[in-house]
Write a structure and sequence with these properties.
Layout: E1 3-7, H1 15-28, E2 32-37, H2 39-45, E3 55-58, H3 69-74, H4 79-88, E4 94-97, H5 101-112, E5 122-127, E6 135-138, H6 148-164, E7 173-176, H7 187-196, E8 202-206, E9 218-220, H8 223-250, H9 252-260, H10 262-272, E10 279-283, E11 289-292, H11 298-312, H12 316-329
Parallel strand pairs: 1-2, 1-4, 2-3, 4-11, 6-9, 7-8, 7-9
Antiparallel strand pairs: 5-6, 5-10, 10-11
Helix pairs in contact: 1-11, 4-5, 6-7, 6-12, 8-9
């Protein structure tokens, strides 16, 4: 049975939605939850019938969003530090945290360690598409400045995740650029293109619209571009929802139409809701770390735990090490 460590105290909404999400996950999946935080607070939200089925680890501090990622390495009594160390010490198979994302990434990288051959771990996210099969984008924030060899490894890691965790056969890998032509891109993307050209899964350059049209399974970019892409997409989805609601209220015909289209709107909301995907995996570490949104509700935490279970049950890390070793031979 998998042991999943959860940083209960790090989220913006406090421990209640985190614990609710863990309990919902526990009802559906077979795993052993390890809740890390203020035990007295935590137990107030755990239903009595589940207390004996959960391990509680006391953490006297909480890392605040105002703390730097380097502070996380010094504050060893925080819930996120203790949760990560459980993975390092082999007491947990994965860690899930809705807390300080920079701290989670730094601690996981430096305490759990990188996979053999991995230069830099990358944080990835799932993006909705028009085909019902989401695309997978990395890096979205862990590495702002990247060299060509980093991006090439991101392609290998992203492909492994889509194949091993999402269980999608023959994933297509694209390199994000300002055009599909080989002449486009900057010096770094052109170097990456050459490196990946021998990879049968590589389909070449892709543009921003390809992220959402289902034509590509894995989209590779540096963390600077990826983070802007992620935040822009979230903003667009939120704005479109507000625009639709605002205009529907202005017209009786639109109100009637919205009633008929309710099912369609429900499907759309589900596709763009980050809670459906749970969190962002940090890929390239010698274990599993899922970075959940700070404002995660119970549904998001449940799906983040599911993602940790799927990751831990796969052969992704072995696959990454093997494929990066082959890449280095080229």
């Amino acid at each position: 049975m998998l042991n999943i460590a959860i940083d209960v105290m790090g989220g913006d909404l406090g421990p209640e939605p985190v614990i609710e999400g863990v309990i919902k996950a526990f009802k559906e999946k077979d795993f052993h939850p390890i809740l890390v935080g203020d035990i007295d607070q935590i137990k107030n939200f755990v239903p009595p019938q589940f207390v004996d089925k959960i391990t509680f680890i006391q953490a006297d501090e909480v890392l605040s969003m105002s703390d730097s990622a380097t502070d996380a390495l010094k504050k060893k009594e925080t819930s996120i530090y203790k949760a990560v160390m459980l993975v390092k010490e082999g007491k947990a198979d994965a860690v899930v945290s809705p807390g300080h994302s920079g701290a989670t990434m730094s601690l996981a990288t430096l305490r759990i360690g990188r996979l053999k051959g991995v230069l830099r771990p990358a944080i990835a996210t799932i993006m909705p598409t028009s085909t019902q099969k989401p695309s997978f984008v990395l890096d979205v924030g862990a590495n702002v400045d990247c060299k060509s060899e980093h991006l090439a490894q991101f392609a290998i890691m992203g492909e492994a995740y889509v194949r091993d965790v999402l269980e999608r056969q023959n994933p297509r890998v694209g390199l994000l650029s300002n055009g599909e032509e080989k002449s486009k891109g900057n010096d770094i993307t052109k170097e990456v293109y050459k490196i990946l050209s021998t990879n049968s899964s590589f389909i070449g350059y892709v543009e921003g619209n390809n992220i959402f049209d289902g034509s590509t399974d894995v989209i590779v970019c540096d963390g600077f571009v990826g983070n802007i892409l992620l935040k822009t997409s979230e903003g667009v989805a939120e704005s479109i929802t507000k625009i639709i609601k605002k205009n529907i209220r202005k017209s009786p015909i639109a109100i009637a139409g919205s009633i008929l289209m309710r099912k369609v709107f429900k499907i759309l909301k589900k596709q763009v809701d980050y809670a459906e995907y749970g969190g962002a995996p940090l890929i390239g570490i010698n274990g599993c770390a899922i970075v959940a949104h700070g404002k995660s509700n119970a549904k998001a935490i449940k799906n983040a735990v599911f993602q940790a279970i799927s990751f831990s049950n796969s052969n992704i890390n072995e696959d990454i090490e093997e494929r990066i070793a082959k890449l280095q031979e080229v």
